[in-house]
User: Fold Murein endopeptidase K from Halovulum marinum.
Amino acid sequence: MTTTFHRHWRDVPESAWRWPNFSPAEIACRGTGKLLINEPALDKLQALRDRLGKPLIVRSAYRSPEHNRAVGGATRSKHLDGAAFDIAMANHDPVAFEAAAREVGFRGFGFYPRSGFIHVDLGPARQWGERFPVRETAFAEETPPAREVLAERRLLVTKP
Ligand SMILES: [Zn+2]
Assistant:
């Protein structure tokens, strides 16, 4: 068996957890605390974390059927198998994230630019949602801070 169910993430013995950058609480159902440990999926999540070298902020991982219904999840959502993860893009470049996720073996991708996360899963290869808009952050250091620009403009206006 590569999946193990726990009625609460607190019941997971320390010896059963081997993904150093994630905790049972982060992966457990946010509505019930239940946890389905899907080992192959967690191995891929850890591989993705290792490849990117930056924290992965998990917005949603395993979902119990009752919580999946409550949040309006798809009836056959891979979250129900513990094989899907919604990862915040606050600290990631979405393009680099997607490439790395594909390299480690994730095949399903859902893009939620307005909510700021990407869904990755181990279901069939497919994708949905609109890609994230290209960010300016890659060149942010070369852009003058907005406040200075404003100050300059005010100066121009108030000068006689
Ligand atoms: Zn998802």
The radius of gyration is 20 Å.
